[in-house]
Structure formats: C-alpha cells, structure tokens
Write a structure and sequence with these properties.
Number of strands: 3
Order of helices and strands: HHEEEHHH
Strand content: 5-15%
Distance between the termini: 18 Å
Strand order of the largest sheet: 1-2-3
Structural class: mainly alpha
Radius of gyration: 16 Å
Number of helices: 5
Shape: globular
Length: 150
Amino acid sequence: NEAAGGWTVMQRFGKINPEELNGDQVHRLENVMTLCHGIHSLFEKLYVWFEPSDDDPYTCSVKTSQPSNKVLGLPETFTMTTTDPNFPRPSPDYLRLHAACARIANLSGAAMYVNSMYRYFDDQDILENDESSATMALCNWGQYVKEYGQ
C-alpha cells in the first residue's frame, strides 16, 4: 500500500504524525509559509530548501541546487517570525523533512522526475475537506509511479 509506505517514511524520518496533515489539518498554520511566487515554485520543485538551525529551529539556512544562493538572490539565512505570538510559526519538523527530500532529489538527479510529478498532480483533485486528503495524495503519488516511474 503506497499510502501506508508514505506515512511510514514521514513518521520515521520526519517524526511527523500523519494525523497532523490529514483533512483540514493540512491547512494549519504550522504547514504554511508566505513566499514570493518564484521562490515558492523553486521550493515545491525541491530546488530550494530551508534547514532549521540546531540552536534556534526558527532560524534557517537557505540551501539551493545552485552553487550559490546569490544566483537566485537569496539570503544565506533567515528567521521565521510572527506578529502575534498566538499564531504558530511554520513547523521546523516539516522543513527538515522537506530539506531531506530536496537533498536526496538533487543528489540523485530525481528533481527533474519530481517536477514531472508536479505537472501530473496539477490535473488531480487531491485536497478534499475530509480525512481522505493526505491518503489520497499518497495514493495518487503511487499511481503516478506505476504509470510513469519506469
């Protein structure tokens, strides 16, 4: 079962409980960041990732698939802030998992493959408002691999 395998990876490597991202929970503030369109596109395609510091999990190093951040006009580090302490900042655990996926994708040459998956998912309706969202996304990923993975 592809969905179960995806959840296992998230739990073991990301220390993320699947319920945190299921149904409406996927839209919680810990899973949200505001990025300009160009950076968001590079982030979701795994060409840019943020590595939280061990000293302060809300201060991140900016990493890219390019030899230098200056190519993209990005800073070396940034600190996530909030204007209201009642609103949580993005989860460092989610950023660490994204960073691990991005490093692996870029080191293995899989980033281009990931981009083809994004084009495939653009045609899919996977973010439902019930508890099926996260499982549906992982099942669609499994279907994509079956159809295009070879």
